[in-house]
Specification:
With about 425 residues, the chain is α/β, with parallel strands linked by helices. About 45% of the residues lie in helices and about 10% in strands.
């Protein structure tokens, strides 16, 4: 930010600028956000701050929430969030940070995946300062002539500057022309909504800069690009991703969120989760981070605090405390909680356990169920089943609490008995 721009900023905008740039990776161009804040005040209007999310799955995760929370900060300082559900670009597939050709989704898949996106996003954003759009509104109306005309604004050399494209080109891996079109389409979103600012993860930097280029070509003021860090997943290695299964969804129940967060494999990431996923002040985060990195009981306590703070953001403090208490009951004191949801048991005697786990919502598929069984992660009334157990006598399952891993459990009941007030296992669990 130039001295001249800094001098011109209203005190409220100076304070806003400090908040809006905290925790970011890049703000491009340098001084651009300060200039936009100043011009918005002169013009008496809020900034239009764009975020696009493609419906590649049905859940928004804590990874999405990092940028959603930054967008909320813009709202809280008086600006308008323009949230674009990429129902059209989702059918193309964003190649960012991918090592291979990404499979495209059908229109039906994008519609199904995005059905609850808005409700989930509004757990973070303010409805009264959110403009909701779908990019099929303008991209779906384009003709081939329109696409060719817009494509003239980008060169293949520019596209190959992208790290993921350059890596795949050097390795002689295929890059489809459709993938080349993705940055163009995302950039046209910025033109369509006349974005002043666009937010994204660091893997989106190139696409966001293309938006600036296309706005320039269309005679619009160029948007400011603000990027935020990517959140590592629960495995502690790759970024949080639905496709990798290392994620926490913002709409998951409190117990599931808490249990997943307590399964974070690398305690050194506790501080990063605190910074990117909670509202705790920096000083307190620094203390908790030091505890986590020190190992032992203090690290476990810091991780618990992190899990509690995240759950409280999406479900409230009371639910977070209750989820922590239930977690302690099951996994520290080795007792079953008094309230476990019922699930009807599949037909058969003996019962094929992989099929029963899927039907009860404790596994995503029979192959996932077999993996859990092989790993010794399935317990019946807190007793671990021997690995490779596939078939169990029906009498040994009816009324029993079955847990798959640390996060999911259900009481198996006969069909028609779901919701029975007091199955035998519930009585012995108290």
């Amino acid at each position: 930010m130039s001295d001249e721009t800094a001098h011109q900023l209203h005190p409220d905008d100076e304070r806003a600028l400090e908040v809006l740039t905290s925790g970011t990776t890049d703000v491009l161009p340098q001084g651009g956000l300060a200039s936009r804040l100043a011009s918005a005040r002169r013009e008496g209007r809020p900034l239009r701050v764009k975020l696009g999310i493609d419906p590649s799955g049905s859940d928004l995760t804590l990874g999405h929430a990092v940028v959603l929370r930054k967008l909320r900060q813009f709202q809280d300082t008086g600006h308008l969030a323009v949230l674009i559900v990429g129902d059209f670009t989702g059918m193309v597939g964003d190649p960012s940070d991918k090592n291979a050709l990404r499979q495209s989704l059908t229109a039906a898949q994008t519609a199904q995946n995005s059905a609850t996106y808005v409700e989930q996003a509004l757990r973070v954003l303010r409805r009264d300062r959110t403009e909701l759009r779908r990019n099929s509104e303008w991209l779906g109306e384009m003709t081939m002539t329109d696409v060719v005309r817009e494509a003239r604004h980008l060169t293949v050399a520019q596209l190959l500057e992208r790290e993921d494209f350059a890596r795949r080109f050097a390795a002689r891996q295929p890059i489809s022309l459709v993938e080349f079109l993705y940055p163009l389409l995302q950039g046209l979103d910025s033109v369509a909504v006349r974005a002043d600012v666009e937010l994204g993860g660091t893997d989106q930097t190139y696409n966001l800069l293309v938006g600036r280029e296309l706005q320039r070509a269309h005679g619009q003021p160029q948007q400011v690009v603000v990027t935020v860090p990517l959140l590592e997943g629960l495995d502690g290695r790759a970024k949080m991703s639905k496709s990798l299964g290392n994620y926490v969804a913002i709409a998951e129940p409190p117990d599931q969120q808490f249990g997943k967060l307590m399964s974070l494999r690398d305690d050194r990431l506790v501080g990063r989760y605190l910074r990117l996923c909670t509202d705790l002040p920096p000083g307190e985060i620094a203390l908790l981070e030091a505890q986590a990195e020190g190992g032992g009981a203090e690290a476990a306590a810091a991780k618990r605090r992190m899990a509690r703070e995240v759950v409280a953001l999406y479900h409230g403090q009371d639910e977070a405390l209750a989820a922590e208490e239930r977690f302690t009951t099951v996994f520290r004191e080795h007792r079953l909680p008094s309230q476990v949801p019922d699930a009807p048991l599949v037909a058969g005697d003996p019962v094929h356990l992989p099929k029963a786990l899927v039907a009860a919502g404790l596994a995503a598929s029979t192959s996932d169920a077999r993996r859990l069984l092989r790993g010794g992660a399935v317990r019946v009334d807190n007793r671990a089943l021997p690995p490779e157990t596939l078939d169990v006598a029906r009498a040994d399952l009816v009324g029993r609490v079955v847990a798959a891993g640390r996060k999911r459990m259900a009481r198996l009941v006969e069909p028609g008995d779901a919701g029975a007030p007091d199955a035998p296992a519930a009585r012995t669990a108290r």
